[in-house]
Amino acid sequence: MNRFALTLVGGMSLAWVSLAAAQSPPADPYPVIQGKTYRFEKIADGVYYATGGFGSNNVVIVNDADVLIVDTGTTPAAARAFIADIKMLTDKPVRFVVNTHWHFDHTDGNSVFGPDVQIIANDYVRTAITTFDVLHREPYLTSEGSAVPAQIEDLGEQAAAERDPDRKAQLQQRLYAAQQVLVQLKDIKPTPPNVTYSDKLILHRGGREIDLLFLGRGHTAGDTVVWLPKERIVCSGDLMESRIAYMGDGYFDEWVATLDKLKNLDFAVDLPGHGVPFSDKNMITEFQSYLKDLVAQVSALKAQGVSPDEAAQRVNLTAHAKYFPQITGPGADLRGVRRVYAWLDERDKK
Asked: What is the pLDDT along the chain (350 residues), one digit of tens a residue?
């Protein structure tokens, strides 16, 4: 299993990252504009990939008269920092927000936007945010809800016991940062989209066409892909990342089929919800192979009477490490393996 830790990003913000995935970033293929918190890579005229904040990687699309953003981050504070940094790119107002799916790290900044902003998502996203107790279930529960208080307690104990002044100061700084994040989390007010669609919604903003596509269930039951046909840019959210995605709400056979539809788009670059931009469609094929391999191994272990917790330790997906180097040994995320067990039970009942 990968271990996780809180890492300082964007000033005092914090983000959860896999220690096994920590790597030196490649040389920047795109021009970069650095804001106070967010780092913007210019992908095409008016299209920027935003990283460095708290939660999802976001996209900024500057149109003739307004701005559309893809995803809003983990907290209202993150969204406010994002909006502030966008002013480095343009003075045009944000009028559209697209949530690629309902998970907290893509939607918990929604509440900062007023009624003049259209927050758009698939129908399922509104259903999920309005009917699920999203702050008391996965993925928020163990990613933020219980993890940040646990981190504060651990850092407090380490700082109290540390005798080296420099090390103690570092621990105290990390403790303060974690405490600030806890304050930010308490400000969250789950806010659903105010505009929804079922299969496809096309926006025409001046000379730019922006297609919102539901290609099928996969990472969740309501993933939106943002497609810019003229620029040949796709924003795939967590349906397809450049790393192994969280799988706790996945629909595994449909996910593989939906990714085939993503590959059919004639994109030059994919801007994922986490990771880095990529152009190689073989990465999608390899992730499809990973999903199939995960399901096959977990199915076999389940048939042997192995518990989900043990299966999560025993599965061996290192064959896929060429494309996903955060895989450094046997094991998979427990929440994803538990979801495979539940999904197999659902499938068998049909």
From this structure: 232 333 322 222 333 333 233 333 445 688 999 999 999 999 999 999 999 988 899 999 999 999 999 999 999 999 999 999 999 999 999 999 999 999 999 999 999 999 999 999 999 999 999 999 998 888 888 877 666 677 778 878 888 888 898 887 887 887 777 777 777 788 899 999 999 999 999 999 999 999 999 999 999 999 999 999 999 999 999 999 999 999 999 999 999 999 999 999 999 999 999 999 999 999 999 999 999 999 999 999 999 999 999 999 999 999 999 999 999 999 999 999 999 999 999 988 87
pTM of the model: 0.86
Q: Considering the domain 1-279, what is its CATH architecture?
A: 4-Layer Sandwich (3.60)
- The full set of domain ranges for the chain reads 1-279, 285-350
Q: Which residues face 213 on adjacent strands?
A: 200, 225
Q: Which long-range contacts (CB under 8 A, 24 or more apart) does 28-32 make?
A: 29/277, 30/277
Say if residues 318 and 294 touch (Cβ distance below 8 Å): no
